[in-house]
Amino acid sequence: MADSDVLTVEDVKAAVIEEVQNVQVIDVHTHLLPPSHGKLMLWGIDELLTYHYLVSEYFMVAPAEMTHKVFFALSKEQQADHVWQGLFIDRTPISEACQGVITTLQKLGLGDLSASRDLKGIRAWFAAQDLDEHVDRVFRLARVRYAVMTNIPYVEDEAQHWRVATPKPVTPRLRTALRIDSFLKGDWASVSQALKAEGLEETLDGAKQYLRKWAQIYKPEYMMASTPHDWRYPEPAAAASMKPLVRAFAGFGASELLEQVVAPVCEELSLPIALKLGAWRGMSPELNPCCGGDGVASADIASLQALCAKFPRVKFLATVLSRANQHEVTVVAQKTRNLHLYGCWWYCNNPSIIEELTKMRVELLGTAFTAQHSDCRVLEQMLYKWEHSREASRMKSNLEAGKRHWPGPGPLLRATCAPGLAPDPRRAEAGRPAAPGWLL
Question: Which residues pair with 26 in a beta bridge?
Answer without folding.
Answer: 146
